[in-house]
UniProtKB/TrEMBL annotation:
<keyword id="KW-0378">Hydrolase</keyword>
<dbReference type="InterPro" id="IPR052708">
    <property type="entry name" value="PxpC"/>
</dbReference>
<dbReference type="Pfam" id="PF02626">
    <property type="entry name" value="CT_A_B"/>
</dbReference>
<dbReference type="InterPro" id="IPR003778">
    <property type="entry name" value="CT_A_B"/>
</dbReference>
<feature type="domain" description="Carboxyltransferase">
    <location>
        <begin position="27"/>
        <end position="290"/>
    </location>
</feature>
<keyword id="KW-0067">ATP-binding</keyword>
<protein>
    <submittedName>
        <fullName>Biotin-dependent carboxyltransferase family protein</fullName>
    </submittedName>
</protein>
<dbReference type="InterPro" id="IPR029000">
    <property type="entry name" value="Cyclophilin-like_dom_sf"/>
</dbReference>
<keyword id="KW-0547">Nucleotide-binding</keyword>
């Protein structure tokens, strides 16, 4: 058995393998998937000398603990959290050397939701449709981590970054999302569209990798008939019968039968990945209809 592997000591609430996803398969009903906070995952890979396509681990709220079978360089980014190696404090947001058999503990998020753990060589589980990402909706890719699981690692491609700590954006205290109206904003009353662009919503605890659900002002529909299922894109803001918006994230379905009032700018979605339940959400109109 190869010594290029990680043993999972503590899997945490939800820890998955993620890379840049598997775009281009929507016609097969396969979502893009991939790391929800792409910039944080990319930074973690750069810190340990990995290429941009290397797979990392994405934790949710309470972190995870890992034991490498050989010495590795790791980096933890995304949600700020306590990092320890065999109980001793280690850097968050910088490269850390972990000897064979030592336990890397990624603690609960102090702020934000999701931390990213990159390991030199990348997590080398078998790719599916060109990606190693776990897709919670379709079930493609590796299963979420479980205690006792063993993850193979690839061969390191380069040296780690020569920095102590890399700067990165903090989790949002308020989520401000630029949105382009359409394609179905005409299915809502004029008052509902005004409330959508001026009201304050809150992140719901029911949010997950499929969608960020909100609570707040109800958006009334102007049309009551059924909408045939149609294609959905990353960042689409769908409004189900309850009347509160749902922002589709990386594991979203490729089709849906509720009207989409707008689409969030892709550059604003990483912040959505770090917004805790209760965080205020505001939608602001992008410049011009249908464009950014």
């Amino acid at each position: 058995m190869t010594d290029r592997a990680l043993s999972v000591v503590r899997a945490g609430a939800l820890t998955t393998v993620q890379d840049r996803g598997r775009p281009g398969h929507a016609h097969l009903g396969v979502p893009r998937s991939g790391a929800l906070d792409g910039p944080a995952a990319a930074l973690a890979n750069r810190l340990v000398g990995n290429g941009p396509d290397a797979a990392v681990l994405e934790t949710t709220l309470d972190g995870c603990s890992l034991r490498p079978r050989s010495a590795v360089t790791v980096a933890v980014t995304g949600a700020p959290c306590r990092v320890r190696v065999d109980g001793r404090p280690a850097a968050w947001g910088g490269p850390v050397r972990v000897r064979a058999g030592a336990v890397l503990d990624v603690g609960p998020a102090v702020l934000g939701v999701r931390a990213y753990v990159a390991v030199s060589g990348g997590v080398a589980v078998e790719p599916v449709l060109g990606s190693r990402s776990t897709d919670l909706l379709s079930g493609l890719g590796p299963a979420p981590l479980a205690d006792g699981a063993v993850l193979p690692l690839g061969t390191p491609a380069g040296v780690h970054a020569r920095v102590d700590v890399a700067p990165q954006a903090g989790p949002p205290s308020e989520l401000v999302l630029r949105v382009s109206l359409g394609p179905r904003d005409d299915w809502f009353t004029a008052g509902a569209v005004r409330r959508f662009l001026s009201g304050v919503f809150r992140v719901s605890p029911a949010s997950n990798r499929i969608g960020l659900r909100t609570a707040g002002p109800v958006l009334e529909r102007a049309r009551a008939e059924e909408l045939p299922s149609e294609g959905m894109v990353l960042g689409a803001v769908q409004v189900p019968p309850a009347g509160t918006p749902v922002i589709f994230l990386a594991d979203h379905p490729t089709t849906g039968g509720y009207p989409v009032i707008g689409v969030v700018h892709a550059d604003d979605l990483p912040a959505a990945a770090q917004a805790r339940p209760g965080t205020a959400v505001r939608f602001v109109a992008a410049r011009g209809r249908g464009g950014f």
